[in-house]
Amino acid sequence: MNGAANVLAQGEAAFPPSVEDFYLPSIVPWGAENSYWFTKITFMVWLAVAILIVFFLASYRKPQLVPTKKQWLAESIYGFVRNNIAVDMIGHAGIRFAPYFTTLFCFIFLTNLFAIVPGLQISPNSHIAFPAFLAVISYVLFIYAGIKHHGAGKFIKNSLIPPAPWYILPLLIPIEFFSTFLVRPFSLAVRLFANMFAGHMLLLVFTLGGFAMINANALLAPVSLLSWVMTIALTFLEFLVIALQAYVFTVLTASYVQGALADEH
């Protein structure tokens, strides 16, 4: 976003920004022109993975009875997800899913946080591919957990056949199938994508709007300052959205696992 702002300030870019601005140039040239093989977005995904691996390995390399600051932070994150998401949503059986939920929460939070980090200022989750892939992993997890717990036949029966009179089952079964096996992964992906995409576009519009007004008319300089103040305010709001979306995605995944493990529909 800083680069776009500088270009606009020099009068070299159009306003407002378009969806095409999300197709970032490749960091590593590959194949034909406009190839998007390894972009800034891809770099940030691998950066997030590296940060999380190094942080947790360093925190638990030499665990102590009286924890260090890094160990305390890592244990606090894991304890929060285990107790407030895995156990609260699933019960004692949720403990075995806590490592995945913790990884999911930390990865989404960190990649979302890149949206307000100077120099990065966009979240990989602003591209539908990454939320979609995370949703597919969670989708496979809750189906696998349900089949392993109940067996394929009983899991499908519990998922598709609600406790209702037989004569309305032909109507309810397609609805249950659509809701359980199609809407869940779609809603997981779109919710995260839409929030991060919208947040990035708002910050981009208010930031570039200030430059656009200055370039258009010197009398609009005070209004441009207001636009940048709004950018700062929206950045704090975006941080709340960043944390909330990581929590919501993880909670919904846990709720789907809980439903797959439940003995009743």
How far apart lie the N and C ends? 47 Å
Helix/strand order, N-terminal first: HHHHHHHH
* Strand residue percentage: under 5%
Main pleated sheet: none
Low-confidence stretches: 7-11
**CA-based gyration radius:** 23 Å
Mean pLDDT rating: 82
Number of helices: 8
Structure class: mainly alpha
How many DSSP E strands?
Answer: 0
The shape is globular
Helix amount: over 70%
Describe this protein's structure.
There is one protein chain. The protein has 265 residues and is mainly alpha-helical. It is built from eight helices and no strands. The longest helix has 48 residues.
SSE diagram, text form:
Elements (H helix, E strand, L loop, with lengths): L1 H8 L30 H21 L8 H22 L7 H16 L15 H22 L1 H9 L8 H48 L4 H41 L4
Helix pairs in contact: 1-7, 2-3, 2-4, 3-4, 3-8, 4-8, 5-6, 5-7, 5-8, 7-8
Features:
about 0% strand, 8 helices, about 260 residues, mainly alpha, globular
Short description:
The protein has 265 residues and is mainly α. It contains eight helices and no strands. Helix content is 71%, strand content 0%.
